[in-house]
Design a protein that fits this description.
nine-stranded mixed beta sheet, alpha/beta, about 220 residues, single chain, Rossmann fold
Length: about 220
């Protein structure tokens, strides 16, 4: 119970930070703390390649957890290669979801203010969701990440895809979380399911992970 309360406080801080950033920078890559649209798109491409690797040649449903202003929905919609993906956007920040409803006025049903998918999906995707932190304890933040992944995995038929910035040791520096790649894979396989990792082309230090849901 204490841990869950701690996680809720962490989310409140992050929620406030994203709300302030959106107000300052608007619906842009900078508005969700990305350095550029190019790096944002490179991460999207890497994550979606893992979805296709895990579920080749079939339609899939995907929940974008921490969807922000809907940049991934835009990205998917502009490329015919992703036409078989059924998209849902989820974010805890009401201002972000309001921005999505304004931008995608004919698809407001696709966006929900929540921390979990509104219905079962094949995959949950987390693009940059865990990079920014207002926590100074890397072990606590990693525990929070795994708690959120486990919560979302209950809604997934196939698995989870996410990216993290990786470094030789797990640490937090200037409010950015850095994971140790090998340690993260080991813990994910112990707690969640078979895990593979691949470096994101063109984005230094960024690693995409596919965690496969265990079948009953």
């Amino acid at each position: 119970m204490f841990r869950r309360l701690t996680y809720a406080l962490l989310e409140q801080r992050i929620n406030r930070a994203y709300g302030d950033r959106l107000a300052q920078r608007g619906t842009t890559a900078a508005g969700v703390f990305w350095r550029s649209e190019a790096s944002q798109s490179a991460r999207f491409k890497a994550l979606l390649s893992l979805v296709h690797k895990a579920a080749p040649n079939r339609p899939v449903s995907l929940a974008d957890i921490g969807c922000g202003y809907g940049a991934l929905r835009d990205y998917i919609g502009k490329d015919q290669a992703y036409r078989s993906i059924s998209y849902l956007g989820v974010d805890i920040n009401r201002a972000m979801i309001a921005a999505c409803h304004k931008k995608f006025a004919h698809e407001t049903h696709l966006f929900t203010c929540a921390s979990l998918p509104p219905e079962p999906v094949d995959f949950c995707l987390f693009s940059g969701t865990f990079n920014l932190t207002h926590c100074d304890d890397p072990a606590l933040w990693e525990d929070y990440i795994f708690a959120k992944l486990a919560d979302c995995l209950r809604f997934c038929q196939s698995g989870l895809v996410l990216n993290l910035i990786c470094a030789p040791k797990t640490e937090i520096w200037k409010q950015i979380f850095y994971a140790n790649r090998a340690n993260f894979v080991h813990r994910a396989e112990q707690q969640l399911g078979r895990t593979i990792a691949q470096s994101t082309p063109g984005v230094g230090g960024d690693v995409s992970f596919l965690i496969t849901a265990a079948k009953d």
